[in-house]
Specification:
Elements (H helix, E strand, L loop, with lengths): L3 H7 L2 E6 L7 H12 L6 E4 L2 H10 L6 H11 L12 H15 L6 E2 L19 E2 L1 H10 L2 H6 L3 E8 L5 E5 L7 H7 L9 E3 L2 E5 L9 H4 L7 E7 L11 H14 L2 H23 L3 H4 L3 H6 L7 E7 L16 H21 L12 E7 L2 E5 L5
Parallel strand pairs: 1-2, 1-9, 2-5, 9-10, 10-11
Antiparallel strand pairs: 3-4, 5-6, 5-8, 7-8, 11-12
Helix pairs in contact: 2-4, 2-14, 3-4
């Protein structure tokens, strides 16, 4: 019987990267559940928006309590079902979403009445949002142990967008002490939620600039051999839309899938070049490198290898463009179960076992719904 946890560990550090996407983040709970059941615990979690919240709960909980606290978060933000199951899906979905927009989501957000008076009403830079997230702050304060988050065995990185400079900023527990503001900033999606001020600067949701923050792993210093599980809750692949309704849904998928495939393609090129430089440098005798520019150039070589397993969440049958505010018990349950099932299927396939070209430094394994759709860098 294969020891998946040992196989993953032999590939290097284990990194879990979680995309932003509101209610779609329930899928990530199932992903973590499957990994934990297989004995695969992350050394590093990276997230934006709802991915930052799930990541912070994982990093801010003792190992044996992570699933319980994740489940408790999603139980608190459930939007109780008031609509008949006899209704067509699109009608009950529209009614449920109308309630979320007008009254908020328990444990998460509630309307800010002043914001609805006029778009020109002077709310102030720290409160300019249609909704208050005081509920979320209370929920997270109950579920996240900040001492564990900053001193535990899991590194946490959350991404946010600088309002003033439009730069992507990563807050990293390896380099600084994090608190709830950093997590809240990563999920402060305008104009729904107000910006969060940290050290005098305002920050919005990191998904505005990079909803799949996998680049922070590729650019980490020092680079380490890694197994990266990148969870995509906005599917980059989809059919051609046939109606305005479908256009709105597909447009959101494209917007928030965050061009991660292009990032990975670029990083594959860079990592391969580093491997080539390292291979060429090894052919040069040491006395030729000493005191020569060749020594400086050889420093650009690197032999680390990163396996990136992209887990793409397929859409539920009834989903539309408002799927990210579907906090219904049934929607949360279906997404969590799908994340668990698809991850278990992918782990069972173990795509990292396939032979690879030794010059490849970054190997992409892409799975959708538990089925492998792409494996790059295979050895001829």
């Amino acid at each position: 019987m294969r020891n998946i946890a040992q196989e993953v560990k032999e590939c290097g550090q284990t990194v879990l990267v979680l995309q932003g996407g509101g209610a779609l983040g329930a899928y990530q709970v199932g992903v973590y559940e499957a990994l934990a059941e297989a004995g695969v615990e992350p050394d590093w979690v990276v997230g934006t928006s709802i991915g930052a919240i799930n990541s912070a709960i994982i990093a801010g909980s003792p190992k044996g309590e992570r699933m319980d606290r994740l489940c408790e978060f999603w139980r608190r933000v459930e939007q109780k079902q008031f609509f008949s199951s006899l209704m067509p899906d699109w009608i009950s979905s529209a009614a449920r979403n109308a309630v979320a927009v007008s009254t908020g989501v328990p444990g998460f957000f509630e309307p800010n009445p002043k914001a609805f008076l006029s778009p020109h009403f002077p709310l102030g830079p720290d409160a300019a949002g249609y909704y208050s997230v005081d509920r979320l702050e209370k929920t997270l304060s109950d579920l996240i142990d900040l001492d564990q988050l900053n001193s535990g065995d899991v590194r946490l990185t959350v991404g946010a967008s600088s309002v003033r400079s439009s730069e992507m900023v990563y807050f990293d527990s390896r380099d600084m002490t994090l608190d709830l503001r950093h997590v809240m900033a990563s999920g402060a999606l305008p104009p729904a939620f107000p910006a969060v001020r940290i050290d005098g600067e305002l920050y919005w949701d990191g998904g505005i600039l990079s909803n799949t923050p996998v680049e922070v792993v590729f650019d980490d210093n020092p680079r380490l051999n890694s197994m990266v599980f990148a969870v995509h809750i906005w599917n980059p692949h989809g059919p051609e839309p046939r109606s305005i309704w479908e256009v709105m849904n597909r447009q959101k998928d494209l917007q928030y899938s965050s061009r991660s495939h292009q990032q990975i393609k670029r990083q594959r090129q860079l990592h391969k070049l580093r491997h080539i430089i390292a291979e060429l440098s090894a052919l040069v005798p040491d006395h030729k490198l000493a005191g020569n520019r060749l020594k400086e150039m050889s420093g650009y070589g690197c032999t680390t290898r990163m396996h990136v397993v992209r887990l793409l969440a397929p859409a539920l049958e009834y989903e539309d463009h408002s799927k990210d505010i579907d906090f219904s018990p049934e929607g949360i349950r279906q997404r969590r179960e799908a994340g668990y099932r698809h991850t278990m299927d992918t782990l069972d396939k173990g795509p990292w076992r396939d032979p690879i070209d030794p010059l490849e430094g970054l190997v992409l394994h892409e799975a959708c719904g538990g089925e492998m759709v792409e494996t790059s860098a295979a050895k001829a």
